[in-house]
Each structure stands twice: as C-alpha cells, then as structure tokens.
Give the backbone structure.
Amino acid sequence: MDNASKIAGMRKSFGKSLLYTLPMFLITFMFMTGGKPNFADPASGLAILTAFLLVNVLYFFMHYTGKTDRYRAVLFIIFALSLSYTLIHNMLEVRKSMSFSQADILECKIPFCHLVIPMMILPAIFTKSIIFPGSIIGGFANISSMIVLWLVATLVLGRGFCSWGCFYGGWDDGFSRIRKRPVIKKISELWKWMPFAVLIMVTLSAALAMMPTYCSWICPFKAVTEFEQVTSVESVAKAGIFLTLFGGLVVVLPVMTRKRTQCSFLCPLGAINSLSNKITPFTVKIDKKACNECFKCVGVCPLYALTPEDIKAGKVSLFCSKCGKCVDACSTKAIHYGIRGIPAGTMKNFSRNLFLFVSFLFMAVFSAGSIISTFQGLLKLIF
Amino acid sequence: MKKVKIIAGISWAFFCLILIIILFPGLNSFSVSVSKLPFMKLNPRYTGGEIANQIIVESCTLDIRKPVFNGFLKEKNSGFVQLDWHGTIPNTIKDSIDYDHDGNKDFCIFIDRKDSKTILYPINKKVISVLISTPTSYGWAVRVELIK
Ligand code: SF4
Ligand code: SF4
C-alpha cells in the first residue's frame, strides 16, 4: 500500500474490493451474455469471457489499489483500438476499403459519430432536419441512439465523457503515455480555449453550408475510421488535412508533451462537454486545508484543466474530464472525486465509489460490443 | 442550507446512477422516442428530395425527385435534382428530363454504365453540370446541379 492511498484510505481490503465489484460483475454479466451465456460457438464464448473478465478485473483493481486513472486508461485505450478495429474490419469486409463511396452518401449509409452533434444543432432548430447522411433509426451507429447515448453520458458525466466514454479519446490518451517525461514542457494556456473557437466556427460553417464541415474537412479520426474516397483535388486536400492533424495532434504532440493535445486544442464536442460539467452531479474537488501546494496535480493533468491559481482558489476548471490522474498523483488526497453540494474534503470514499460505479459501468457496457468483436477477430486469426 | 445542498447533490447523483443502469436496456425504446421528434428527419440535401415523378419503361423505373435548394435560413441559389434508376437497367441510359414539370424538356442525360461515363446535354439555362453519377445498391443515381 503506498503512502497516498494509506492517507486517504481509498484502498480497500481484498474482500471489500470483491464486494464492491459484485454489482459490476452481475450487471456486466447480464449485458454481455443477455443472461444466457452461450458457448456453442467457442470463439465468441471465449471472447465474451475475456471481455467480461477484463472489465471486472480492472474495476476490482480500482477499489483494491485506490488508483483510478491507470485502470480506467487500460479500458479506455482498448475501447479506442477495438472500435477502430471493428469498424475497419467491417468496412473491409463489406466495401473492401476504408473509404466510403458517393453511393454510401446518397443512400445515407454513413455511421453517425458523436462529433457531428455540435454541427447538427442550428440546422435542427432552424430547418427541423438533420444534416448528416446516416440512418435516423435502425442499423449500426444510427443517429437517434448515438444522440441518446451522448446526451445521457453528458448529463451524467459532463466532460467525464471525454475520459470514460469517447471512443476517440483513447487514441491521444494512449500516445500521451508512451514517454516517461515530456520533451515539450510548456504550451501556452491560451490554446485550451481553441476548442471553443473551433466549436463556433464549425457550428456556423455547418449551418451555412448545410453539411458537417468538421467531419468533411477536419476530423483527425478519419485516419482510424473511414474517409471519403480520394478521387478529386478536393478529396486529396481533405485527406492531407486529416492525416496531418492525426499525426500532429493525436500522435506526435501527445508523445512529446504527455498531454491529450487533440482533445485539449481541437475537439469541438469537448468544448460542449466542458460546459456540461456545470450541471453534472460528479465533480473533482480540492480540499484547501489538506493541500500543501506541491502542484503535482497541475503537472500530470492531461487536459490543461488545472493551474496553480485553480489549486489556490480550490476550484477545478471546467476542462476537467474526471480522468483521476491528479487524484492518483496527490500525496495528501486533497484533490478527490466529489458530489455537487457535498463540501470538499468530506465523504470522499462515498463520492468516489458512486462516481466509479456510474462512469465505469457506462464505459464497460458501451465498449463491450467492439471489444468482444475484436477479441473474436483476434481469436479467429490465431486459431 | 448546507444539508439541503448535500441531499440535493446526492439525490441528483443517485438519479444519474439509475439513468445509467436503465440506459442500455432501454436504448432501443429511448432511440425510437428520439427518432419521432419533429427535427429528426434527414435534410433533402441528404435524402435527395421527395419523388415527384416516376417513369416506368418495361421493368426499369426512373424516379425524378423534387429539385433541392434547401439552405439554412433561406433557399440557396444553387441546388440539384436527383434521378434514380432501379429495376432492370440497360447498360446505356438515355433520358430526357423535365424536372420542373412545365411540359418542356430541361436536359438530356446519357449514361454508359460499363465505362461509368455520364454526359449531360442542358436545354434549360438553369441546368449546370453533373454533380454525382454513381452505381448504387438499387441501380444508378445522378445528381444534376441547378441554379434558381
Ligand atoms: S475532446 Fe473530443 S475526441 Fe477528445 S475525448 Fe472529448 S469528445 Fe472525444
Ligand atoms: S483535473 Fe484531474 S481529473 Fe480533471 S482532467 Fe485534469 S487530471 Fe483529470
């Protein structure tokens, strides 16, 4: 047991940790097996079992070790990789390519992604219609179900969605962990307001052009999902932009800074999620009495959500994604998960237990489908 | 006051806990409800517009859709008309189209499906160019650019 966990008593005994894992165990069992485990197909049975054990072992260790971020990150990164694998695998099977054709657009067969949501808002209000070539209901990643998932996650987790639900965030989270020490130590704080500028720009441009401009021109994650067929000068330019942004903001800068630079400096949905932090019940709090102002938490925060001024003021900024990295790093446990209305420094264990259950359950169930199908694919490759 | 705040915070947190637990089992029915909201329909820029006229020749059907000029606050000056052929489509398509239903042909279109070659012969000055000409799962689709 390390010093930090001892001080705050976040770490639990083996038996108590098992007890806390039991509800997660039962609920994920129901979701992953539908209540009736079927081992008729050994590959799919084994894939379900592996995914089930993975999520429950990670959750158990969150309680047993008192650490949050490292176990969260494992599932978060696996989610990002497996979703890309599943999507690309399906596309290669169905279309024989990672690119979608004009016919796919005309027939409204493009899977919907939550990053489109900010661009839909104005046209939905003023034209009472959706500007995306996807399916309203039915089929893979349809618009209605993705809206429901994002809406509930944002209401409940706020920007926590960016560390517990977004299937893209795991990419720059993963790359930000590759080096032990950052090569670039200082980036101007002002850049963290950039997503709000991008949000305003893409919301207005999408309404004027009546198309999701961020998806068409900017989104770096097309590199790991799907993109427009490269058939014209315009599509070459688009491919150049998304590949450069992916290379720069998702791979190179996270490796050099140990920060999630795409999520910090570009994503417009991250900006909306930050605003929703104002209403969610779960927060990260600072107990000023316990804080010795070592500012370790400021250094480790991957989203530039903390400054020394924030710590002195006892407030975490609206950029916080509730990843738990600062909580794990704090040797006095002055910074901790909290619930709105409960004063900082009190009911820390209760708040953490409730937050972990809610956020981890969301991630475990949301990611289960793609993780299971990735394990299935890998098992088929091996045997 | 402090107690009220604590109780309100905890109640809100438990409400969210319940919301997350019922989210996935209830996802289908929540999604169906959301899909019925008045703004949950695709813009004609994506669907291609309503079918305005259908021409059936033997077992090949041509759908001529309503011209689409939909914009954000007002109609745009440029738009398109979408044509869809389905059924048993010949290898070469030659059709004359009256998209505005004024009794006069507005353009002729020639498609060689084997070579993926599409030639547009505009008659009406408002007909500009071929935006898209592509095979689809149901046959073939063309979007012709128009101005108002
Ligand atoms: S900032 Fe954007 S890409 Fe990053 S985790 Fe949040 S929604 Fe996803
Ligand atoms: S403030 Fe803490 S919990 Fe919030 S994003 Fe930064 S490290 Fe994560």
Remarks:
- Residues 348-382 of chain A form the longest helix (35 residues).
- Residues 99-280 of chain A form one domain.
- The mean pLDDT of chain A is 92.
- Strands of chain A lie at 99-100, 227-228, 282-286, 335-339.
